[in-house]
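Quick question, first post here. What does this chain look like in 3D?
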Amino acid sequence: MDQAVLKRLKNAGLLSEQVPDLGFVSTGNYALNKIISGDYTKGIPIGMITQFHGESSTAKTVFATHILKEAQVKGYYSILVDSENAYNSEFAQSLGIDPKKLIYSAPETLEDSFQVLEDTILAIRETDPDTPIVAAYDSIAVSPSKAEYEADSYEGNNMQGAVRAKATGACLRKINPLLRKHKVALVVINQIRNKVGVMYGNPETMAAGGKSLEYYLGVNLKCVSNKTSDLIKDDNKNVIGIMGRVKNTKNKCSIPFKECEFELIYDEGLNPYAGSLKLLEADGLVSRSGAWYSVVGTDKKFQSKDFQGLLQAEDSQEFAPIRKLFQN
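> Answer (accepted):
Ran it through. Tokens below.
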């Protein structure tokens, strides 16, 4: 490339000179990190939008909270835009969030939510140009557009969905360029609705965002949990948590269309090791024979219920190669 030409360029340069990635923020679950980034310790990408969507009570807010927690551990800025007005300090602290380090806002409309994100990002960058920012929007499905919010009555019309989709597209077009420029990871929580009268095919549709949101996503994650068979109970049959799966339906960081399992204990948060064993088996690092597993290249046999304890035991030499995969 002619250097004289490069010197004359103002808003362009060589692709080889661009930073390949701005870093990652862990989700709090090693298996989920793996299916997003291809690495057990990375997670969601900085500079892109990551969406968690699913039905109610499928751990969407918990995943966002764990990501904000991991951001705080790294010394990053953490922001929560709470349009559901359901987030509280006690819940955040139970999952490891420091409320004194969490920037919080509860805007009334969709447009206001994106405006708060933009204003907060730019305000931080006025004094700190480098420290990454992690923001969560919970949830885009709940925020009304300004047109809906300012309507005189509660009667809807057939154009409200189109108006919200149009407003979302306009907001995304404005916020998206800021993310990579200012080292921001944006986590958007969305909900699933069912189309009325659909008899064939998949009736599921996103509750908000229209088609525009799907195009802007760097990572799209669907949370699935059955509210009867996926319950975790203690010895007294009391429900203490849920388990489920996360499906990666779009991925600009690694290979898409992978999935993993998760476990959530209500008063503890996510089990960081849930789902890892199956991925290790798929990678050829662990082999299975019936209910018994073994680390490839060793004679050590174990069952899935013992995996986490053996992995965390420093004297289990057979697990040393695997243990390194979970260390930064």
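The chain is about 30% helix and 25% strand.
The chain has a mean pLDDT of 89.
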